[in-house]
Amino acid sequence: MRAQPVAAASPSASEPPDLDPSGGGPATPIYLDHLATTPLDPRVLEVMLPYLRENFGNPSSRTHDFGLHAAAAVEAARGHVAALVGATAREVVFTSGATEANNLAIKGTCAAWAGQGVHLVTCATEHHAVLDVFDSLERSGQGFRVTRVAVDHQGIIDLPALAAALDDEARLLSVMAANNETGVLQPLEQIARCLQGRNVIWHCDAAQGVGKIPLDLRRIPIDLLSLSAHKMYGPKGQGALFVRRRRPPLRLAAQIEGGGQERGLRSGTLNVAGIVGLGEACRLCQQERAPEAERLAQLRDSLQQCLVHAFGAAVVVNGGAAVRLPNALNVSFPDSHVAELLPRLRDVALSSGSACSSGADTPSHVLAAMGLDVATAAASLRFGLGRTTTLEEVEWAARRVITEVRSCGKRQRPYVFSPKPNQP
Ligand SMILES: Cc1ncc(COP(=O)(O)O)c(C=O)c1O
Q1: CA-to-CA distance for 221 and 218, rounded, in angstroms?
Q2: Cis ω on the peptide bond leading into residue 421 (within 30° of 0)?
Q3: Edge-to-edge strands of the sheet including 145-149?
Q4: Are strands 316-317 and 328-332 parallel, antiparallel or unpaired?
Q5: What are phi and psi of 416, to 5 degrees?
Q6: 328-332 and 380-384 as β-strands: parallel, antiparallel, unpaired?
Q7: What is the CA radius of gyration of the chain?
Q8: What's the CA-to-centroid distance between 24 and ligand 1, angstroms?
Q9: Ligand 1 within 6 A of 176 CB?
Q10: Do residues 355 and 37 lie in contact, with contact meaning Cβ atoms separated by under 8 Å?
């Protein structure tokens, strides 16, 4: 199967309005990189501030009101995080972010299996905070075998290949909720069906999904789930790992040892302001997620239609036929030299891949796994819309991108999709 450009624009789609020659228009730069990080919601900052000022107590100090007050705030936040994903407060372990949560989930689970010839299964398009952990376990000499299951041209995990990978030695599966480059959602319910009757622990990196799509852990049998505050209008440096309470219990080896906080799973004095901020961010997402998702999907669709209208088959919407995050759009311009585009788009903050790899020269492993050739993957833009994004901003961004792409030179080599690379 070849990757198809997404169907032509709907009849109502049109070029975005011309830029205002008088210099009017939205305030620039316009921030359209909300998959890399979101701004702190002012309402979140408001509830955090007292914990950076007068309420500075250490929640482990149970002998005075300073500590007790901080501990109560931490527990209230734990409740908000749990409520957003259908968990109980006791199932939430605070970490410094999704990277740490992923490391704790994967290394912490695997610690008990060293030397047992265990098989670990993940997906080729995971974030490096998952893939690199599996790479290091594979190299560790402790007998871990890793399968990275392929995706199709839309970025969806190959379910028959996943089912085949889940052999008798398979003990851990890590598949994300939503991809950080394309926004493509993985079919969690079908993955759950593949796991039925198997003794496999399921970890899910949901850093991009939590707060944007409905995720109910009472319905989906994920055992370990990572989330991050700065992807949902909370502070950077704060995240959490959901650890399901079940029989037999999940046994995780702590990766950071010391004072025994978080029931020994993650030592270190708690970042009270960060935790309070994460809790408030979760509370707001729970209240506002559904209408906001609808608004963002409309804006994203109109941005997509503007680009498809302007470029037709010369633009590919990566993952455009899949179910995606409402705020995500990833496009490639296979015939254009757009690699130099971003420096010229100073007034629109975009990304050419995941934030973590956008500084590197290597093309996106996600787009490569979806079958894009190196040059086409390099000629891609990632838009991430957010809570403050307006139609005016989207139209401005569309016009600016159209203008700059049209002024880019044509690529010498015609556009062809390479055969899908073999999975390592
Ligand atoms: C899917 C995914 N997982 C993990 C991370 C890392 O999260 P954090 O920045 O909280 O460590 C990110 C951030 O880009 C992400 O998008």
Answers
A1: 7
A2: no
A3: 92-95, 239-243, 224-228, 201-205, 170-174, 119-123, 145-149
A4: antiparallel
A5: -135, 140
A6: antiparallel
A7: 22
A8: 36
A9: yes
A10: yes
| Count of alpha carbons within 13 angstroms of residue 399, beta-carbon side | 17
Both structure tokens of 252 = 């995780």
Q: Rounded to the nearest whole angstrom, what is the distance from the C-alpha of residue 62 to the centroid of ligand 1?
A: 33
Cα separation of 13 and 302, whole Å?
7
- At 265 the three-state DSSP class reads coil
pLDDT tens, 18-33?
Answer: 655 556 788 889 999 9
Angle (CA) 280 255 139, round 5°: 125
Q: 154 phi and psi, to 5 degrees?
A: -95, -5
Q: Is the pLDDT of residue 415 over 70?
A: no
pTM given for the model: 0.92
Q: Is the distance from the beta carbon of residue 366 to the nearest atom of ligand 1 less than 6 Å?
A: no
Complete domains list, the chain, with CATH: 30-40+289-409 (3.90.1150.10), 42-283 (3.40.640.10)
Terminal C-alpha separation, the chain: 20
Q: Model confidence at 108, in pLDDT bands (50, 70, 90)? A: very high
Options 123, 306, 356, 408, the catalytic residue = 356
Strands (E) across 96-143 are located at 119-123
pLDDT tens, position by position, 303-324: 999 999 999 999 999 999 999 9
Residue 336 has pLDDT above 80, yes or no: no
Q: Which amino acid is it at 149? A: V
Active site residue 356: yes
Question: Does the C-beta of 212 come closer than 6 Å to ligand 1?
Answer: no
